[in-house]
Amino acid sequence: MLLSIIILNYKKKDLTLSCIKSLYEQFSHQFKINIFEAIVVDNASNDDSVSALQEEIKKKNYKNMKVIASPENTGYGKGCNLGAQYTKGTYLLFLNNDTLIKDKGIVEMVHFMNMHRDIAILGGQLSNFDGSKQPSTGKFYTLYNTFLLLLGMQKYGVLDKNPSTISQVDWVKGGLFMIRTEVFKALSGFDEKIFMYTEDMELCYRANLEGYKTYFYPFVTVVHAEHGSSSRTFAIIYIYKGLLYYYKKHKNYLEYSIIKTLLYMKAVTAIIIGNITRNSYLVKTYKQAIRF
Question: Which residues constitute the domain of residue 252?
């Protein structure tokens, strides 16, 4: 087996069904001849997701696809680690369930990894449904970069970018994240203490510390419904948690204290603005985020 594709589902069976359908439409040959496999991990949806996915796989006769039912919702990283335990591929591809595969670029990503043994992680270009590109790479969160992030500067391409050529980068977004299985195991996978968000950046950071290279591959078309599998409020809360954990784990106490203060100030400012403008979303979201 060359490539193992891991997809997480949590109460979004329709998105996941569309995702695996698009995968099989593009790569039916690879699935049929045991080059590709797909592992769908259901993170305890407590609905009919598992049976619906299993029935669809059986009905459509999708080869080399299976569903793993987790007994609890363990978060994105731990769910991906669970799926990885059932894989046989030389490479792992972590793919968001709110994506649709529109071309065979993933095959080219595998070929690129085969030709460049020094590259451990390879991210791909994610796109919006209107064809515009989503920022698919980022810079590590130094104090300066985190300050820019909290100011919203990532909207202007200061932190998150889309190189037009194959390029070495700090980290790649987890929606389309390929890694050598041997490297994933050597790094002990995603940090399971991060429930969701920032786990992709943190894994790339650890890979970088060990001398592994991360690259970006722009020549692939994968449509991504951003926040399709979660809400924006959920994202903000867990980005806060993820940043704090990242600094506590990898940086010194001074840097951790500074980041904690910056996050608090950002939340308080958002709450004040929300109260002035009667924006209940801002108030509710950042009151939750500020609960360190």
Answer: 232-289
